[in-house]
Design a protein that fits this description.
Layout lengths: L4 H27 L7 E5 L6 H17 L3 E5 L6 H9 L6 E6 L5 H4 L11 E9 L2 E5 L7 H10 L5 E4 L5 H13 L4 E4 L3 H9 L5 E5 H9 L4 E5 L27 E7 L4 H15 L2 H9 L3 E2 L4 H22 L5
Parallel strand pairs: 1-2, 1-3, 6-7, 6-8
Antiparallel strand pairs: 3-10, 4-10, 4-11, 5-8, 5-9
Length: 329
C-alpha cells in the first residue's frame, strides 16, 4: 500500500506557507499607514487664521514623526462648513483629516441642509491648543471695555462687531460677550480672521474677538488695541490685558480651541497613532515655546475623552445660538 505521508507533508508545507504569507500580508497592511503617501490637513479657514497657524505648526512636526509629508489645504468659506464637508466625504483611511475650531460644533445649529453630520461623520482625534480670543479695536476707538459697552448702549444697533464667519469661534465669543454685556450691535461676518482684522484696523468695524495667535503681532506693532481677553484667566502673552470678566462683564468668558478630526470610520489604530503623535508634539518644549509666544497653550486629551467633550460642547453651543438668535445671513 502506497504511503501518503510525503503528499500530506507537502500539503502541510503549502498551508503553512500560505498562512505565513497571510500573516506577513496582514502585518504589512497594518503597518502600511502612513507609508509614503502624504497626509492632508484640511483647514476650513484662510491662511493666517488662528486655526491655520496651529495646523501649520503641527504639520511641520507631524510629517517627520510619521515618516511622510503633511500638507495644509485651506478650504475657507461658510463658517468652516465647506472644508468640513470635503473632509467628511474623504476616504476614512487616515490620509485626509480636518483641523477645525470650536466653531465646528456651532455649525449644525445655524446651517440648514449640511451635507455632513458633525457628530456622526467625524471622530475627534484630539484637541491641539487653546487660543485666547482678544477683544481688539482700532487704537483710538475705545479707551477700555467699559467705554465700549457704554458707547454701544448709548447707541443701540449703531456699532458693529466682526467675526471670521457666522458661527465661528470668534463669532461665538462676541455673542457671549454681547449677551453678557447687554448691548445691541450689528454683526459683520467675514471670510476669515485676517479680513476682519483689516477692517478693524481701518476703523470700519468697531470691535472683533480675534484669536491671539493672529492678533498679537498687530497688537505689539500698535496697529490694533487690545481691550481684554475673552478667556476665564489672563493670557501670559498679554499679562496686562484684563479678562472681559475683570473688565466688568461677568459671564463673558469663552474657550476657543483648535482640534484634529478624522472621518468617522477611520481605523482606531490610526486615530490612536495620530493622537499619540500630536500629543507628543504639543507638549514638546519647542512647540510649547512657540505657542506661548503666540498666546496659545497646548490642549490635548485621548480620543474617547475628546469625543465626550465634543458632545457636551455641542449642546452648550446650541444654547448660545438660541439665546443670540444666530443664523446665516
Amino acid at each position: 500500500m502506497k504511503k501518503t505521508f510525503p503528499w500530506s507533508r507537502r500539503q502541510a508545507l503549502t498551508v503553512a506557507a500560505a498562512l505565513a504569507a497571510c500573516t506577513l500580508g496582514g502585518a504589512h497592511a497594518q503597518g502600511a499607514w502612513p507609508g509614503t503617501q502624504p497626509i492632508k490637513l484640511v483647514v476650513p479657514f484662510t491662511a493666517g487664521s488662528g486655526t491655520d497657524i496651529v495646523a501649520r505648526l503641527v504639520a511641520e512636526k507631524l510629517g517627520p514623526a510619521l515618516g511622510t509629508s503633511v500638507i495644509v489645504d485651506n478650504r475657507p468659506g461658510a463658517g468652516g462648513t465647506l472644508g468640513a464637508a470635503i473632509a467628511a466625504k474623504a476616504p476614512a483611511d487616515g490620509y485626509t483629516l480636518l483641523v477645525h475650531s470650536a466653531g465646528h460644533l456651532v455649525n449644525p445649529w445655524i446651517y440648514k441642509g449640511l451635507s455632513y453630520d458633525t457628530l456622526k461623520d467625524f471622530t475627534g482625534v484630539t484637541p491641539m491648543a487653546s487660543l485666547p480670543n482678544v477683544l481688539v479695536t482700532a487704537p483710538s476707538h475705545f479707551t477700555d471695555v467699559k467705554d465700549l459697552v457704554a458707547k454701544a448702549k448709548a447707541k443701540p444697533g449703531g456699532l458693529n462687531y466682526g467675526s471670521a464667519g457666522n458661527g465661528s469661534a470668534t463669532h461665538m465669543n462676541a455673542e457671549v460677550f454681547r449677551l453678557a454685556a447687554g448691548v445691541d450691535a450689528q454683526h459683520v461676518p467675514f471670510r476669515g480672521t485676517p479680513e476682519a482684522m483689516t477692517e478693524v484696523m481701518a476703523g470700519r468695524v468697531d470691535w472683533f474677538f480675534a484669536p491671539m495667535v493672529s492678533a498679537l503681532p498687530l497688537i505689539k506693532s500698535g496697529k490694533l488695541k487690545a481691550l481684554a481677553v475673552g478667556t476665564a484667566g489672563r493670557s501670559s502673552a498679554l499679562p496686562d490685558a484684563p479678562t472681559t470678566v475683570e473688565a466688568s462683564v461677568p459671564g463673558s468668558a469663552y474657550l476657543f480651541w483648535v482640534g484634529l478630526f478624522a472621518p468617522a470610520k477611520t481605523p482606531q489604530p490610526v486615530v490612536e497613532r495620530l493622537q499619540a503623535e500630536v500629543a507628543k508634539i504639543m507638549v514638546s518644549p519647542e512647540l510649547k515655546e512657540r505657542l506661548e509666544k503666540l498666546g496659545a497653550e497646548p490642549f490635548t486629551m485621548p480620543s474617547v475623552q475628546f469625543n465626550k467633550f465634543i458632545a457636551d460642547e455641542t449642546a452648550k453651543a446650541q444654547q448660545v445660538v438660541k439665546a443670540a438668535a444666530i443664523k446665516v445671513d
